[in-house]
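Q: For a teaching session next week I want to show students how multiple molecules come together into a single three-dimensional assembly. I've collected the sequence lines for a complex. Could you give me the predicted structure tokens for the whole thing so I can convert them for display?
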Amino acid sequence: MNERIYLDNNATTPLDPRVLEALMPYLTDKFGNAASRSHGFGWEAEEAVKLAREQTAELLGASARDVIFTSGATEGNNIAIKGVAEMYADRGKHVITQPTEHKAVIDPCRYLEQQGFRVTMLGLDKYGRIDPDELRSAITDETILVSIMHGNNEIGTLQPVAEIGQICKDQGVFYHCDACQTFGKIPIDVNAMGVDLLTLSAHKIYGPKGVGAMYVRRKNPRVRPKPLLHGGGHERGMRSGTLNVPGIVGLGAAAELCGQEMNVEFKRLAALRDRLRDGIMSQLDLVHLNGHPTDRTPTNLNLSFQYVEGESLMMGMKNVAVSSGSACTSASLEPSYVLQALGVGDDLAHSSIRFSVGRFNTSEEIDQVVEKVVATVKKLREMSPLYEMAKEGIDPSKVEWAAQ
Amino acid sequence: MAYSEKVIDHFENPRNIGSLDKDDPSVGTGVVGAPECGDVMKLQIQVDENDNIVDAKFKTFGCGSAIASSSLATEWLKGRKLDEARAIKNTDIVKELALPPVKIHCSVLAEDAIRAAVDDLKSKKKDQGADSNAAGASGARVATAEK
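A: Of course. Below is the structure for the complete assembly, covering every listed component.
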């Protein structure tokens, strides 16, 4: 197996050649600034942005006027959380979220705490799902925002967004949903979900990096986050800055392709993911699935291989690109906070690998990866003192370790 | 983070993987680290009657750098006298494997494992010397393991 195989599509995706084709002219001769109102260069850029806005809105079940473009989901999450908090602070200073959100949600919430806001972290079941009843009782008349993602980027678990949306609507609280991992993969309807703000990213759906979009509800209720960027007043005053026209065109094209191909692609990718899961789990024992078994994004598979450490497994599977919840793979040497929040146990967090299939993966690749994973895990278990102890009948989790 | 060639080599062609009989009086066993930390090394040495280390084996749960550090340690231990084993420093391992700063702790753990194995052997010898009825307890640094 000499070719590289990419199974880290939750981290980023390759650019679809059709998206490249759509955006290329805007990097070459259609280079105008979309805000240049007085000449053809500006008008053609403006037209392209208008189309992209419609393409994006279509995949959200929203109107184009509800969509604003950003530099990506991190910026979108910052606008949603910090912008809403600043705008509505006189109504209350309480925000509710949950511990497996992306850092782009967790860190703005931490920042709000430093500004005197109170942040409630909801509890999770072993799959990482919040309890709608707990949410209902956590909301007070000081609460202004609930931020709960649609699908988790590490473990794929889907949150009960429609229920969350209804609870928020009933209690008059804004609901922000980070939909990076679900936009373009599963159907999204902002009205059925009851979301008031939603963030998405182009590079998760075979579009370019550096561009994303937000849905910001204009009616019933109207939410108006304060901008983070002040300047020329672009995007209805919510996000100043010359529009990244090529990026935006790419996002729109990527969104349209996802919309067209979603039904077929969902089935094909879920089947590839299941093939990977079944191939691995039928040939290895002591493998644990992290996240909900069925209520998860179709492309995500997160497995813990007991007694084998994640980074060494990735090293053994060189040429296969995946990621791991192991501390050894993070700059901070902390294991995955998402797996920790599930109560998986640090040893299993260190043994976890996240596989995420995508549009350009084939079943041949999946079969090669299964073979590689099984062989590498077996080899590493032979090298593992923990596996040896387990085979001797000693449970490593009951041992008192003389840890550093 | 690209791995150095030597780390990759130790991973792909590991030396001295396996186990010695921990109850054998000529074998010293060191187990260091903890599963919750993502790093556990078991390192064993066997000496002859002149205290020359004639065999060394390891098993490691950990990243590529941890595996390479412990593999290298077993390579270096073979042929040394027991008293020279403690002279192996983690900085030597770092240099040999070109470990980046974030992986230095793997070499420290390997050094700890060597010391633990040597200490285990020495305490076994003391027991044997003090009491001819040596029970040959494993003496691994790991406290009570429940079956």
